Amino acid sequence: MGTTTPPRTLAEALRARGDESLAGLLRARPDLLNPVPNDITQLATRAGTRASVVRALEHLDRFALQTAEALAVAPDPAPYDTLLSLLTGDGLDDGEQRDDAGAAVTAALPGALTTLREQALVWGEDDRLRLVRTARELLAPSPQHPSPTGLGPTVAEATAGMSPGRLQEILAATGLPATHDPVSAVAALSSLFTDRTRMAELLDTAPVEALSVLDRLVWGPPYGEVTPNPTPPVKWLRDRGLLLPVSTRTVVLPREAALHLRAGRAHRVPEPVPPAVAAAAERDPQAVDRAAAGQAFTALSTVEELLKLWNGGGPAILRAGGLSVRELKRAANALDVTEPIAAFWIELAYGAGLLAPDGETDERYAPTPASDEWLDLPAEDRWTHLATAWLAATRTPGLVGGQDAKGRALSTLGPELDRSAAPDVRRRVLALFAELPPGTAPDAETLLRRLRWERPLRGGPAASATGQGPAPTEGTDLRSRLALWTLNEAELLGITGRGALSAQARALLTEGEKAAAARLAPLLPDPLDHVLLQADLTAVAPGPLERPLADTLSVLANVESKGGATVYRFTPGSVRRALDAGQAASDLHAFLAAHSRTPVPQPLSYLIDDVARRHGHLRIGAASAYVRCDDEAVLNEILADRRSTGLRLRRLAPTVLASQSDPGSLLEALRDMGYAPAAESADGDVLITRAGARRTPPRTPPVPVPEGPPVPDDTLLGAAVRAIRAGDTAATAVRKEPADAPSADAPSGSLPRTTPAETLATVQAAAMTGSPVWIGYVNADGAASQRVIAPVRVEGGFVTAYDHTADEVRTYPLHRITGVAELAEDGKG
Hints:
Elements: H1 10-15, H2 19-28, H3 40-47, H4 50-58, H5 62-73, H6 80-88, H7 96-118, E1 122-123, E2 130-131, H8 133-139, H9 155-158, H10 164-174, H11 182-194, H12 196-204, H13 208-217, E3 223-225, H14 232-239, E4 244-245, E5 250-252, H15 255-261, E6 279-282, H16 285-309, H17 325-335, H18 339-351, E7 355-357, E8 365-367, H19 369-375, H20 379-392, H21 422-435, E9 440-442, H22 444-454, H23 478-493, E10 496-497, E11 500-501, H24 503-510, H25 513-520, E12 532-534, E13 538-541, H26 547-556, E14 558-561, E15 566-569, H27 572-580, H28 585-595, H29 602-614, E16 619-621, E17 625-628, H30 632-640, E18 650-653, E19 656-659, H31 663-672, E20 678-679, H32 714-732, H33 756-769, E21 773-778, E22 784-795, E23 798-803, E24 808-813, E25 817-822
Parallel strand pairs: 16-20
Antiparallel strand pairs: 1-2, 3-5, 4-5, 6-9, 7-8, 10-11, 12-13, 13-15, 14-15, 16-17, 17-19, 18-19, 21-22, 21-25, 22-23, 23-24
Helix pairs in contact: 2-32, 5-7, 5-8, 10-11, 13-14, 16-18, 17-18, 20-25, 21-23, 22-23, 24-25, 27-29
């Protein structure tokens, strides 16, 4: 290969890349694509902005970040050997363990540098490695934001502004020759601190207490406070420049001295290799799959019960959005789970598009039309629908009960529960599960350690390195909390069983929903078409019931207990509920006889007949409301009952009472008094109340909040790279200047300016010779751009040309071309 000129800027380094490498940069940092840069220079500028660099640093693993941190405290530019030495040490304190660590760092460093180069955080050849300026500013030490390495400023930085006299005192105390040149004095002190032999001799003369002070500062933070009259050990260190003043009360250990004490290492413990995820237990894979399938079935039953609970219209929506604490408790009691778990099921149903606000004036949550379609699916398809929705959801029910940035409580279904990192964490956790052998349950602590290694800056302990505020403790960062919630939610949903990833979940992650459903289907119990009626007014369902049977039975009886078998209890209220839904006593007798494997007990038959005989004996209508009954004695009994006082009843006729309460309140009040009234229409017919009739208008599931710009596909990347290349060709092409051009330099990037006649003549000549030209062009929206085109035809006020910028043939109106210039031959103007 021939000799190439080393790049002098990041733009030159990017310009030297191949198209595939540029596409890799845009794929790793998609924020650089919005909008597509005009040329390489604009791409390099955008890649160096603070927001983009912070986002790129957040996606580095621990060792790539340590490599960047080492470059931030290395000379700029730094040779590869200097960087390697900062990560491995100078070798003077090596033992066998240090040798092993150094070998691992040596093996991993090329890969880390490749990652940093691909993401345009580092550029230059190995003999002149440069960290982009913004990253150096973020990772370099300062009093406001100490370096993640724990190193302080260099001697030159710490002594800037120090008086020459003070420098002479330090030189004299360390035995260095005096010099009146401050630059020479700083260089001499720096040379002393970087000389292993002379520095060791100097420290041999230090008091033991002074060495203890250095031990407290060496691994950071390097700053300490001093009193106006420091102790003798501190004074000894300050006199010899081992502690340099930052302010009247603050001193700092200079970087060169700290590196000597650290044996040249920038980090106490380099981590070139990702920590392994340990196994907590090894189980039978088939037992894992069965346990996960059982929990998947429970998940389906719980979501179905939730939909049934809110079937006729769910709880009201708070003014600020979300569900009230009281309604969450009510749902938790109905589902027989704790409130955090109830919040998870509610959020899961909402994220899957099964629940939504109904949009009414008195807005409430209710099932969506999609919930009916979901209920009609086979059980395995219902599970894959829930699992897929959970994987992609950014809503985080684990936050419920906490507070937002303004101290307001976070509520279930509230507006502040989206965390864009949640889907990435869930998939990464499950991917780490999948790397283990089937049936292996991972150790949670080692799994969290691995996640922290992969993304150390994502809200974790090192977040302060980027100036994003104080770092949270190791166990409370958001990414770790999301991982712990993922472990619990995956077990609830049946993704995992007994702590290990199930085969159906593996199939869902790698092969898709159909493969996962096929693996799950044989493990789910078949629905039953019968129950076992008992003499104590209960029915036992020994397994899952077919949906029509379960729906009818849930209206006719109340669920008393759940588990492997479900116990239903028949009560007067539940029977009346079935009668209100339009069933006759004969229908109920026939239903029970058809679906019971045991004879219908006589007490149950008597209960149905007794409630049916009294059902509808009283009629409720609108006056505000009225009660009518053919039996005057019943109305007399109601009027005499003290509990009816609040209803403000009065007799209109021997068989009619009027009330100022609304029909619904009157109906409920009389039922509470032990009667069995029925509502009637204006025509006098009994109104049938269908269970579960309320549905929202068609709703789409909530859209996950994306974590930054979406990753572009290959087609968009290819088009973007071509546009950037072409724009760069236009921006860097050498143009011929007209003879009458002004002597002053035109502004960088300015469009060419020629008269219409000159423009027409130049493009006609270029069309005849097939030569490319440089034009300035203003589109219909008024946006100006510069392009390199090869004119093919000029007629009718238009020029048809091959546009190198767009990599296609286009037609341009001549009146929108601001000017044209010929390209210089052989790159000379």
